[in-house]
Amino acid sequence: MAMTTTSKKQIKFGFDFTSVPDLVACIQQLNNWGYSYACIPLVHAKLKPDATTLDRSALVSRADVILQAETWNRVVVKLSEHLNLDLADSSARDRDAELFRQEVSYASYLNVFAIMFQLPLNGCMPNLARLVNVALHENMFINFYVRVPMTCGGRGDNNGICDSDDNSSGTTDTWKLWSAFSAACDYHRSVCLALELSVDLPDQQELDRWLGEPIKAVIAPTSIFLTNKAGFPVLSRPHQMFINKLFDLDACIFISGEPNQNVKPYFEYLSFIHDSNKSDKLYSYSYGYEDLLQVPLQPLINDLDNNVYAVFEQDPIKYQQYEKAITKALTDKVKSGSTEVLTVCVVGAGRGPLVNASLNAADKSKVAVKVYAIEKNENALHVLNYNNENYWHNLVTVVGADMRTWEFEEKCDILVSELLGSFGDNELSPECLDGAQKLLKKDGVCIPSSYTSYLSPLQSQTLFSNMKMFKSNTPMEYLHENAEQIYVVNMRNMYIISPAQPLFTFNHPRSDLERNNNRYTTLTFDIQQDCILHGFAGYFQCSLIQGYKY
Ligand SMILES: C[S@@+](CC[C@H](N)C(=O)[O-])C[C@H]1O[C@@H](n2cnc3c(N)ncnc32)[C@H](O)[C@@H]1O
């Protein structure tokens, strides 16, 4: 595929042809412009829109052999616009249903990239949804792109289409129409959104809400572009900002306009704004893992392997912050009059990055320390012993034990750990540290000293579909089990419905060790607009030592 390659990711570009008298010439033109994908009507222009014949063998599309199979894989075909599957007249409805079946069947035979159709803006679509479900049931490899204008006046020149006589729902909110349709298709992962951008963008909230939808294609009409002084197409600032967010979703961007105009500059301009968008280091690090659900680790029950430790150790920020926090704790102790050798216990030491941080901190603060590394994973102990001999000059005491039950004659001044899950306490840090607190002197310091989990309501059809399919290919089979599970995920295709609120806070050391760690609370969120609650997004904030957060 001829796609734009940048250090960040590839963008897919295409052109949306309104009619294609000569398909080979059209694909040639596409290549000349540097676009990769073609969006074309499936049915040849020779077939008049009002044709009623069911025998379209000579008319449907073109013989598939005129294009190579891999070229068809880069084609999105548009179903006939005149099909109306929800007509009251049953014979006309049945005729259109048969034409729909034929077109979908032929598109599926061609192995096209996707099948596109317009969502009826009168809100009348139950039979369309039924036929889409039937088609998906019969052919699991097809993808439907449902073309929806982001605002009601956004579909080409058909301004005010929602006000037409057959407007049965009376709604002008195209998001609601899409949402109802997608629910009628049970949020099937092969029913995706082709969002048509409008000249006037809706307000920020509505824009953000679209980002929670499975947008796989974006139709950018040439009419949304402005012309700069040099005569080249440019986008307004709000359009630029929105399209940059769409690039992140990996959607294919289709320019739509007159094919006889020079459309190459549109593609060049969009590539330019994509490349000038400042690159996000973390994003490129996690590229390919967006919206991928993973079950959180349970390092207390399961012993981690070396790959997992290696991933932890790549964190560019965390260990620097720990080193700073341990340095502060050591200097604070010395300032407060302590002259003896200070004892640092690293509990859950893994392969030793926090031991390194402790030794570095001792060097920096010029405080004499005695370091203990406590780890219950017997395999990680080999690495700790190796590091001790080869790098730590045998200055560290390596202990194979569970921190909750280890008997320690002395007490330590500083208890260092990193037992936090993505939601704070979900890897049982509070329970482990409560058990380890007996290792700490009365005036000892815990690093981290506290952490708080945060929660916000979330709309994301993509995450919801991924959740449904997590344990099986049959969405219903494990639905409830899957829905009760928490996941670690790098979220991209989502909309945060309301800002996050703090949930549970844990402090260390605790004065009320007799209290268990069960927590229950209720949060109330202020919701500004209609949306679908698919789940909750959680994260945590941690204070290593007062004044330090990561
Ligand atoms: C999230 S890992 C962090 C490892 C290391 N500190 C790092 O930053 O790479 C947590 C470690 O704590 C260990 N661990 C968990 N619970 C423990 C317990 N109760 N006693 C001792 N070690 C424990 C696990 O085996 C694992 O090595």
How would you characterize this protein structure?
There is one protein chain. The protein is α/β, with parallel strands linked by helices. It has 16 helices and 20 strands. The strands form 4 sheets. Strands 1-2-3-4-5-6-7-10 form an 8-stranded parallel β-barrel. Strand 19 (535-545) and strand 20 form a beta hairpin. Helix 11 (318-335) packs across helix 12 (353-365). Residues 285-447 form the PRMT5 arginine-N-methyltransferase domain.
The class by helix and strand makeup works out as alpha/beta
Globular, elongated, flat, extended or rod-shaped: what is the shape?
Answer: elongated
What oligomerization state is this entry in? single chain
The total count of strands amounts to 20
Q: How many angstroms separate the termini?
A: 41 Å
- Helix coverage percent of residues? 25-40%
Q: How many helices?
A: 16
Sketch the major β-sheet.
8 strands, parallel, barrel
Strand order of the largest sheet: 1-2-3-4-5-6-7-10
| Sequence stretches where pLDDT stays below 50 over 5 or more residues | 1-7, 154-171
SS strand fraction? 15-25%
**Average pLDDT rating:** 88
Indicate the radius of gyration in whole angstroms. Answer: 30 Å
Ligand inventory reads: S-adenosylmethionine
